[in-house]
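LAB NOTEBOOK - FOLDING QUEUE
OPERATOR: T.R.
BATCH SIZE: 2
PURPOSE: Compare the predicted structure-token outputs for two unrelated chains run back to back under identical settings.
PRIORITY: normal
REVIEWER: second-year student, initials M.K.

ITEM 1
FIELD SEQUENCE / FIELD STRUCTURE:
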Amino acid sequence: MDKTPNVESQSLGRAPLESAEKLRTALRHGVFFLRRMDNTRELTSQQISLMSMLTDGGVRMTTIAANLGVRTPTATQSVDRLMKSGLVERQPDPADARAVLVKLTRRGHNVIAAEDRHRNEVVAKVSRGWMKKNWPRSTPPCPFSRNSPARSAA
């Protein structure tokens, strides 16, 4: 990957670009860590992400696709699988008769709440020692980074 800044990024300066790169790396490793939890769980990380989008109410299929970084037909397939499991439902969008909103069912709310609790427990266990040693600091490193012992704990 070419790390040479282009003309636009030169106006930002070196420090913001380095911080952005560190943040992106930390976020990527955080995602890897969370995905490794899927091996023993019922739902995939994509299904959990999709259901998490719906916790505050209905979301259009195009928004789901954009948030997952997939095309709308792929998001539709994911929604169809969750519908068959009774976790989500489609309802007409009151703002646009041509569109539908995807919403969690009561069972879906219960399942995603249990997943959130499980993931929070795992993250809390893994990060407990790191937090005692490193928090608070002005710019704490991510406990899930490449060289962290937390990577192998999940």
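ITEM 2
FIELD SEQUENCE / FIELD STRUCTURE:
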Amino acid sequence: MRYPYLIIIIGAVLNLPMVSIAADYYDRSQEAIHQRTQPLGKVQLLQPETPTPSTAPTVDTVQPADVVLSGEQVYQQYCALCHINGVAGAPMLTDQTEWQTRLAQGKSVLLQHVVNGYRAMPAKGTCTKCSEQALQAAIDYMLEQAGL
């Protein structure tokens, strides 16, 4: 090597910016720490607006809590997903033989299976807000569609 000192000098010159950055990082003064730990942004939380008479819900736009669904409506909204194709062993809507087997146990047993869940069917068949009367109406609708 002809110029070993030249390589050392060039390396030192190239590393000067890195030494400068490292020196800033290791500065333990309160001001330096404060500058390094500044937040990147700020979040402002707004208070929700209170409804004014013009934006408050009116009687026409509020749905009653006790909406009564017919048996067909309950079936269409909650039961059809499984009973239309017999998913996970659910009796198909028009399969009279399957429904006769279940009806032989009694309508009260059918209702209890719906309310509490049975095999793959979840409790209330996912209609958690349905009353037992609405669930019974859905059972009656399905039995009627099966010709029973």
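REVIEWER COMMENT (ITEM 2): The first helix runs from residue 4 to 25.
FOLLOW-UP: none requested
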